[in-house]
């Protein structure tokens, strides 16, 4: 997978989760796409693993970009967003953080969260 997957056409939909490499990478992705759902996760987290197929489906079915941040590899970034537990989901719309939820949310709730910002 190319680490520059977010480059190219601005606003272009990405059909699979995008792994974030740094704070500036996350900033760029949030700025370049209308709606970005960021999953702060850990490989050892059971609820994170349950959420993974849901997020993969949403990446393909919605206009939002699904981004993933491994909290073990990016502890400072997780700290900057006040992540105290995993999974933590942060939603960006038009480059601004608009929602933050700790814990795995059901697919229909995630879809309605995303659609609340993509249909404006």
From TrEMBL:
GO molecular function terms listed in the Swiss-Prot or TrEMBL record: protein-disulfide reductase activity
Site (described: Contributes to redox potential value): 46-47
The organism's place on the tree of life at top rank: Archaea
Keywords from the UniProt entry: Disulfide bond, Electron transport, Redox-active center, Transport
PROSITE patterns: THIOREDOXIN_1, THIOREDOXIN_2
Cysteines joined through disulfide linkages: 45-48
Chain ranges of the Thioredoxin domain: 1-119
GO cellular component terms listed in the entry, alphabetical order: cytoplasm
Residues carrying the site annotation Deprotonates C-terminal active site Cys: 39
Lineage, highest ranks first: Archaea, Methanobacteriati, Methanobacteriota, Stenosarchaea group, Halobacteria
NCBIfam families named among the record's database cross-references: thioredoxin (TIGR01068)
Keyword Amino-acid biosynthesis attached: no
Protein name stated in the entry: Thioredoxin
Active site residues of this protein: 45, 48
Gene encoding the protein: trxA
Keyword Transport: yes
